[in-house]
């Protein structure tokens, strides 16, 4: 065995040897590195998980793109009846076999006949729960004949059903002869979303990297002493370095093992979470091989590098660990390079440039990473600078400041993690807050308007629908009109002069135009200031019109009594040309070619009103669509991301808090004699507690200031890249900085019991 | 020695688990005297000193200081007492490494909420008295053992305590430095009329005392009194 | 230290012949110089004259006649006094102190007390020297230091002996 290998092995032994203390240290390192590794593996699994999901989604695809099919033994009529339940999406399909050999959707054992339904396990669970009563009407009393197997679901939490419906006709349905389509073109995530995802990962992973680097350094001071002792008995600096490397590698390998276990355990829990309608099977959480290999190699390499880098700052001398007498002043100039480079990279994308193409995404991500790394690089310098300037104060303060001035390495390493996490959080939250406020203003949704729009496809009994809607509990008001598209019968310049026809009573029609007088039998022609001349020419009293998309409603002549009126802004559409018809003018057979559009107002205090409304809509027309006004939806969407981001940041900060706590405890333990002595001479424990608090708080505070500055910069850059007006959301800044403060308090509070314990007189005894 | 004793310990017992460290120790300290506490290693000297100073509480027996029972006081009161009336010198490692020597000496005053300027002025005087004024700006790590020990003596005396407790103050020093520390300690203590309880097993160090108390197996023998 | 006091101490454990006494003395304390017979008999007759020992009997077992001596109560008092009095701290005391310790052990007295008493005396002396040193000039200081170091050596030896009393007791009593 070569000498070098022996040294490495010796170091590895040191990593675990050394009695209880040694074991504690080894366990801490392994858990610390393990948590980091598990998170990295989780991140590495994301692409795979999405790919697996996509593959299953493709396999059940029922979007037909090939030409017309004629009915046959193997064709199926398929209706889309997607819905939502309490904010969760429900994938619903109506099926009617047209022959004897219908294709069966993946994961379904038997094709559901009329009145039969196959549901996903999650939906089954919902139906079996007390909430099931609220959802059941949407299955219209069908008998559950089985559940959909995993192969037919995008995720374990997906709510889905296939309902056999014998009444399905060609109207508003698709005819298919198979499920699944290979090589579907996926319209990937939008570049903006990719950018966000990349930056989210950077923001969450960078602190983990920092955490990893500090986890392998748990018990660093002890180790330095041990190395010094080895030097004393004749190890040369090279051997010392190899021993240190061996120790770091052992810690990292242990950590990899723990990480793998944590990951395996963690992914078993994954199916229980559904975020933003996405859930994953445990089996889908599978890190890709290249990424796994990268982690397995990179973690030990990083930890050895971190260990050796730390050795550089500490000359391991035979006579104890002498920190380099003249503390090397941290230099500023190179620390400015990363943020400057980051800004330089991002500059062309600011303002009108925007993010273009995948190169642009990489550029943007690189810029963001550089910017965040800038914070990492600047922090040690800034802490040095501030701590050197800090003046006197109470004894606790003095002790803390001096301690930091003496050796700020360890706290800096940990606070760096916090800084990156908080800066990234602020940047992203700012972007989301901006996007959110934008989306709300853009919908221009006025609070008095209807919250829900119901659109039927196969049901045109306006009065019937209205009475059903109005008798639904929780519905305060409803209004409906039949919509038909019309075009001039001659000359057939279809497309250019398509206009909407609405049939409703006078009160409803008044929403679309200033009608003046109105009584049943009246017909109106709506004109606006932007009316197209071709349309104006084609639509005159006496003009002959074709009704329905494909003329299904026959033709009809605009009566001479038609009055031209001016359009108004409506709650569902912009001002536009239209034909407004009061009841009794058109025959039901003419109207049957149209759809009904109903506007519904719900009682605000009744969260289940929307679900009951959906039940009513399905009851009237299984293929109807229920749309909730978009402002409400957008809100929720962004809330989800932002909450997720906060949770990620909190987890990261907790990790860092854990390692800070370990650092503080270690330091306290090392100084137990000194602490006991200070108490012996009458130092108040309060004074010592303050010193622990300040010692954590000062670096974190500096880190927070830096994080706010860089976070605002990052946020500004991101907002400008997606062309959002710059606005600072101070609650976001305050909230993120508050997280940092919480970390300080948590660490201090948790270290106090140890402080109490260590300051007992036993500490005075010399070992 | 007609006045009442300043510090009085009566029949102290104190065990650590199954180990009896004190087993009927009795001793008195009169104002201004220097008492050496001698005995072999593990005989309970440090334990006795810690009990006298109210750092440890005895399992049984009483320690009274100026007529007040230490075990009847709260921990806060005892802390305050240690700050104001007692001074401590240990064998080594008692200076805060991050603070300069001057700040270390000023520390007890600062704990007493004395303004920093005033505290450091007084600390400087004491450094001067212990002939280490030139160390004021240095950190403990940059001083020799003997110098650090003299700084520690300055720190013990800066509050003008009535009793200085010294546990092997010269244990880590060579004889010349040990003598110097002892000379400065006893001299300064006599000048401020502070009593000194000096734990040592070096006879030459004990030679600086007025009398000695021997501890054996946790029991004291006050020979000077007996003979 | 006088041989007489040692003899008295040895006799405390029981009457002995002169020859036995010499052998016991040489065994335990005569590492440096064994006793002459003349010294033995001169000492015994002096003790006899002072009333510290008395004749316990005369034996004749094929050879010269042998006298057996026993210690008197006056003799025991004299040993008591001697053992409980501290020696004046002088240089090279070990011999005397060692003898006293062994005798104390042999006679069932407290050797620890003996050592404590001696230590107190040493320390008293050292205190004086320390004081003298503090007030004297450099020459004085050097002289005092010399004495102090020697006294310290003695005391250290005393400590060590005290620490090994148990071991010593076992050895002496076998
Ligand atoms: N905190 C403790 N826990 C357990 N045992 C203790 C503790 N403190 C003291 N002891 C025991 O009590 C006895 C007396 O200890 P102490 O430290 O008082 O001795 P000492 O006379 O000061 O010794 P030395 O001269 O070596 O310092 C010893 O046996 C020691 O092991
Ligand atoms: Mg001790």
Automatic annotation (TrEMBL), chain A:
Domain of life: Bacteria
Source organism: Microbispora oryzae
Topology within the bilayer: Multi-pass membrane protein
Keyword Nucleotide-binding (UniProt): no
Stated name of the protein: ABC transporter permease
Pfam families, per database record: FtsX
One GO cellular component term: plasma membrane
Transmembrane segments: 26-46, 192-216, 248-269, 289-311, 332-350, 362-383, 644-662, 700-722, 728-756
Keyword field: Cell membrane, Membrane, Transmembrane, Transmembrane helix
InterPro entries, alphabetized: ABC3_permease_C
Keyword Cell membrane: yes
Subcellular location: Cell membrane
Domain ABC3 transporter permease C-terminal: 199-312, 647-753
TrEMBL record, chain B:
Keywords: ATP-binding, Nucleotide-binding, Transport
Transmembrane segments: none
Domain called ABC transporter: residue spans: 7-226
Gene3D superfamilies found in the cross-reference section: P-loop containing nucleotide triphosphate hydrolases (3.40.50.300)
Gene Ontology CC entries for this record: plasma membrane
Any one GO MF annotation of this record: transmembrane transporter activity
PROSITE patterns: ABC_TRANSPORTER_2 (PS50893)
KW ATP-binding (keyword) present: yes
Pfam families found in the cross-reference section: ABC_tran
Superkingdom assignment: Bacteria
Protein name in UniProt: ABC transporter ATP-binding protein
From TrEMBL, chain C:
Domain Transcription regulator PadR N-terminal, chain residue ranges per copy: 8-77
Pfam families (UniProt xref): PadR
Gene3D superfamilies the record matches: Winged helix-like DNA-binding domain superfamily/Winged helix DNA-binding domain
Lineage start: Bacteria, Bacillati, Actinomycetota, Actinomycetes, Streptosporangiales
Species the sequence originates in: Microbispora oryzae
SUPFAM superfamilies xref list: Winged helix' DNA-binding domain
InterPro entries linked: Tscrpt_reg_PadR_N, WH-like_DNA-bd_sf, WH_DNA-bd_sf
Entry protein name: PadR family transcriptional regulator
Coiled-coil spans in chain: none
């Amino acid at each position: 065995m070569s000498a070098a290998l022996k040294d490495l092995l010796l170091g590895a032994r040191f990593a675990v040897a050394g009695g209880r203390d040694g074991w504690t240290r080894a366990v801490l390192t392994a858990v610390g590195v393990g948590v980091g590794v598990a998170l990295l593996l989780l991140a590495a699994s994301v692409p795979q998980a999405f790919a697996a999901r996509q593959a299953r989604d493709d396999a059940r695809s029922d979007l037909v793109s090939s030409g017309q099919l004629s009915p046959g033994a193997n064709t199926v009529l398929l209706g889309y009846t997607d819905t939502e339940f309490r904010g969760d999406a429900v994938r619903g399909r109506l099926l009617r076999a047209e022959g004897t050999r219908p294709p069966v959707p993946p994961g379904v054992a038997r094709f559901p006949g009329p009145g039969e339904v196959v549901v996903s396990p999650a939906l089954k669970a919902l139906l079996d729960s007390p909430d099931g009563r609220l959802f059941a009407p949407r299955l219209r009393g069908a008998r559950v004949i089985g559940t959909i197997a995993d192969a037919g679901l995008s995720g374990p939490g997906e709510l889905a059903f296939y309902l056999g419906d014998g009444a399905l006709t060609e109207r508003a349905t698709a005819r298919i002869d198979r499920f699944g389509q290979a090589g579907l073109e996926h319209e990937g995530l939008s570049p903006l979303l990719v950018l966000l995802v990349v930056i989210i990962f950077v923001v969450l992973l960078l602190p983990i990297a920092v955490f990893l680097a500090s986890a392998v350094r748990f018990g660093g001071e002890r180790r330095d002493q041990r190395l010094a002792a080895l030097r004393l008995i004749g190890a040369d600096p090279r051997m010392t370095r190899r021993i240190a490397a061996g120790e770091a590698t052992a810690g990292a390998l242990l950590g990899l093992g723990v990480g793998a276990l944590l990951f395996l355990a963690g992914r078993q829990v994954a199916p229980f979470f559904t975020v933003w309608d996405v859930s994953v099977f445990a089996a889908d959480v599978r890190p890709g091989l290249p990424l796994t290999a990268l982690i397995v190699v990179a973690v030990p390499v990083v930890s050895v590098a971190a260990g050796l880098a730390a050795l550089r700052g500490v000359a391991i001398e035979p006579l104890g660990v002498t920190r380099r007498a003249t503390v090397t002043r941290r230099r500023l100039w190179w620390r400015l390079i990363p943020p400057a480079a980051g800004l330089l990279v991002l500059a062309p994308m600011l303002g009108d440039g925007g993010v273009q193409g995948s190169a642009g995404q990489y550029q943007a991500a690189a810029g963001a990473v550089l910017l965040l790394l800038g914070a990492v690089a600047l922090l040690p310098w800034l802490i040095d600078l501030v701590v050197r300037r800090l003046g006197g104060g109470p004894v606790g303060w003095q002790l803390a400041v001096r301690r930091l001035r003496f050796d700020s390495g360890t706290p800096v390493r940990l606070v760096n993690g916090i800084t990156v996490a908080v800066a990234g959080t602020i940047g992203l939250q700012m972007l989301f807050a901006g996007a959110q406020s934008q989306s709300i203003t853009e919908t221009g949704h006025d609070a008095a308007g209807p919250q829900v729009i119901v659109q039927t496809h196969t049901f045109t009994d306006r009065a019937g629908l209205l009475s059903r809607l109005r008798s639904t509990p929780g519905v305060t008001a409803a209004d409906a009109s039949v919509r038909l598209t019309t075009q001039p019968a001659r000359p057939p310049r279809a497309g250019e002069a398509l206009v909407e026809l609405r049939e409703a009573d006078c009160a409803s029609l008044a929403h679309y135009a200033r009608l003046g007088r109105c009584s049943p039998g009246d017909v109106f022609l709506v004109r606006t200031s932007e009316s197209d001349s071709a349309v104006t020419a084609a639509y005159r009293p006496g003009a002959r019109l074709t009704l329905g998309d494909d003329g299904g409603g026959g033709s009809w002549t605009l009566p001479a009594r038609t009055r031209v009126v001016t359009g108004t802004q409506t709650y569902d559409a912009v001002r536009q040309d239209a034909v407004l018809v009061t009841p009794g003018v058109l025959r039901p057979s003419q109207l049957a070619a149209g759809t009904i559009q109903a506007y519904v107002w719900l009682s605000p205090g009744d969260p289940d009103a929307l679900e009951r409304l959906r039940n009513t809509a399905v009851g009237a027309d299984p293929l109807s669509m229920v749309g909730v006004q978009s402002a409400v939806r957008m809100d929720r969407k962004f809330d989800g991301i932002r909450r997720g981001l906060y949770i990620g940041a909190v987890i990261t900060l907790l990790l860092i808090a854990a390692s800070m706590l370990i650092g503080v405890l270690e330091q306290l333990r090392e100084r137990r004699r000194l602490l006991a002595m200070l108490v012996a001479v009458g130092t108040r424990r309060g004074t010592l507690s303050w010193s622990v608090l300040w010692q954590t708080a000062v670096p974190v505070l500096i880190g927070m200031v830096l994080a706010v500055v860089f976070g605002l910069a990052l946020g500004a850059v991101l907002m400008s890249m997606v062309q959002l007006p710059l606005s600072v959301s101070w609650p976001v800044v305050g909230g993120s900085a508050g997280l940092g403060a919480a970390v300080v308090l948590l660490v201090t509070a948790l270290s106090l019991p140890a402080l109490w314990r260590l300051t007992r007189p036993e500490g005075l005894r010399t070992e | 020695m007609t006045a009442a004793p300043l510090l009085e310990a009566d029949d102290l017992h104190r065990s650590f688990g199954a180990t009896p460290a004190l087993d009927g120790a009795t001793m008195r300290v009169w104002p201004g005297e220097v008492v050496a506490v001698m005995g072999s290693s593990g005989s309970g000297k440090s334990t006795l000193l810690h009990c006298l100073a109210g750092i440890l509480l005895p399992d049984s027996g009483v320690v009274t200081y100026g007529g007040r029972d230490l075990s009847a006081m709260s921990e806060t009161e005892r802390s305050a007492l240690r700050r104001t009336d007692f001074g401590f010198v240990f064998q080594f490692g008692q200076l805060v490494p991050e603070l300069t020597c001057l700040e270390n000496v000023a520390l007890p005053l600062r704990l007493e909420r004395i303004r920093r300027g005033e505290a450091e002025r007084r600390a400087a005087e004491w450094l001067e008295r212990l002939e280490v004024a030139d160390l004021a700006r240095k950190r403990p790590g940059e001083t020799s053992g003997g110098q650090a020990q003299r700084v520690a003596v300055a720190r013990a005396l800066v509050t003008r305590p009535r009793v200085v407790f010294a546990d092997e103050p010269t244990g880590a020093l060579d004889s010349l430095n040990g003598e110097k520390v002892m000379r400065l300690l006893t001299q300064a203590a006599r000048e401020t009329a502070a009593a000194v309880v000096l734990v040592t097993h070096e006879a030459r160090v004990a030679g600086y005392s007025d009398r000695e108390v021997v501890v054996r197996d946790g029991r004291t023998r006050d020979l000077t009194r007996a003979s | 230290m006088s041989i007489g006091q040692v003899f008295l101490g040895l006799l405390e454990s029981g009457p002995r012949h002169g020859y036995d006494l010499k052998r016991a003395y040489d065994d335990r304390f005569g590492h440096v110089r064994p006793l002459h017979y003349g010294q033995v008999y001169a000492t015994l007759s002096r003790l006899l004259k002072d009333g510290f020992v008395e004749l316990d009997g005369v034996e004749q077992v094929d050879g010269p006649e042998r006298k057996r001596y026993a210690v008197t109560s006056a003799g025991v008092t004299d040993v008591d006094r001697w053992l409980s009095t501290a020696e004046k701290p002088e240089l090279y005391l070990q011999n005397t102190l060692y003898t006293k310790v062994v005798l104390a052990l042999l006679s069932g007295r407290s050797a620890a007390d003996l050592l404590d008493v001696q230590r107190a005396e040493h320390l008293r002396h050292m205190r004086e020297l320390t004081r003298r040193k503090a007030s004297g000039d450099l020459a004085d200081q050097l002289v005092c230091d010399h004495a102090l170091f020697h006294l310290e050596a003695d005391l250290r030896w005393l400590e060590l002996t005290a620490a090994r009393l148990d071991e010593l007791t076992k050895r002496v009593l076998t």
